[in-house]
Amino acid sequence: MTTETVLVINSGSSSIKYKMINLADGQAIASGIVEQIGEKESRIKHIHGSLEKKLTRSVRDHLEGMAVVEELFEQVGPPLEDSHVIGVGHRIVQGGPYFSGPAVIDQRVYELIQELCPLGPLHNPAHLKGIDAAKRILPDVPHVAVFDTAFFNQLPNKAATYALKQDVAEKYRIRRYGAHGTSHQYVSERVSSILGRKDLKQIVLHLGNGASASAVVCGKPLDTSMGLTPLQGLVMGGRTGDIDPATVFHLYREAGMSIDEIDDLFNKQSGMKGLTGHNDMREVWELVLSGDQNARTAMDIYQHRLLQYVGAYYAVMGGLDALTFTAGVGENDPWVRSELCESLAFLGVKIDLELNKEHFRREAIISTPDSSVKVLVVPTNEELAIAQQVRSLVK
Ligand code: ADP
Question: Which one of 132, 257, 313, 326 is at 20 to 30 Å from 364 when CA atoms are compared?
Answer without folding.
Answer: 313
